[in-house]
# Entry
Amino acid sequence: MDDERNEPMNSGRPKTTKRWLTVILGTVTVLFTSVQCGTPTEQAGSAQPAGTTPPPRTSTASSPSSSSPPASSPSPRIEQAPAPDCEATIAGMSPRQRLAQLVVVGVNAGDPQAAVKLVRDQQVGGIFLGGNETALLQNRALDEVQKAAKVPVSVAIDEEGGRVQRIDALDGDMPSARKMAKTMTPAQVRTKAAERGRQMRARGVTVDYAPDADITGQPDRDIVGDRSFGADPEVARKYVLAFAQGLRDAGVQPVLKHFPCHGHATGDSHKGLVRTPPLASLRKVDLVPYRDIDEYGEVGVMVGHLDVPDLTGGTPSTLAAPAYRLLRQDYAFDGPVITDDLGAMKAITSQYPLPTAVLKALKAGADQALWSSGGNVGTVLATLEQALASGDLPAARVDEALARVLTAKRACG
# Structure
């Protein structure tokens, strides 16, 4: 989920010690499911797209502003019941309130009052700020958004550096991932990310859809291009880890993207289906940044709209249960997983209306469904409510996702 603002792009553990689910431990309910997901996630209405390929950036300031900052073969899905400290919080929520926490909606960063109204009326779990507008990032405007929320709302931007930045007009430019890898050590990148994270946090941002963990040697302006830390997976992993750790040092949640990796994929998910090399190839190169993922600490992962031929079989990973099983079981990730943009990318929108895509993603294993275009929140939640009531969306799946989301926001207990 990313959203570029420069020239248009050609469009973006083996088992280890558990971390998140040790927080979410509880009664384990084993559900044997055979989830058949449809097919193919980004763009924006009032907000800019959040997906793989950002839109053109119209302005960049290099000096700070004075404004306020400052395949897996199918196997049983194991759905974890919430830990006691989350159970009390969840028990006090209505079905609609629970479901609302599982969506992240794009807002117009130039219209703070609309964002406040959205959160007050719908109590969504998160908002995403895309595009060039910065009113929501100034003068403590996001404080009013948080006051409207009964449960703290996550506030996300996609601040990668280079072509994908949100606060450069306020806090100065940050180099692209590729440039950082060429000119800085991992320790320096961690320091740079921590500095940027503190700037984001001071403005009310809590989540950064970065770093880009894709591996590629593409030319700078290609789909991923200079958003990647490089073509050498071992070297790139060091920089991805450093950037993520820097954000965490500043109190901002990093989100690695785009699992199961866009670096060697063909196609543009803004325009249609995107296909990756076979899974065996991904494991050797593209998936290396996800190895020993517990070393990153508390992070999220964004799943892209990618078809892995021998894993998802023509279905974008955002809607495919095998992709989530790969991440959960083979790479032992137990933190929150968010989709790439479901509302503005033709890999999804050409086949499914938004409410259907959101439902499919949550059923497949996503903890949060993102759409950057905003709107349709009531319709989406009504669809999810109906599915929950009928059992089409299992209650255990909702509570499993909700526990991860609330834990990431420190909203339990």
User: Anything to note?
Assistant: The chain has 15 helices and ten strands.
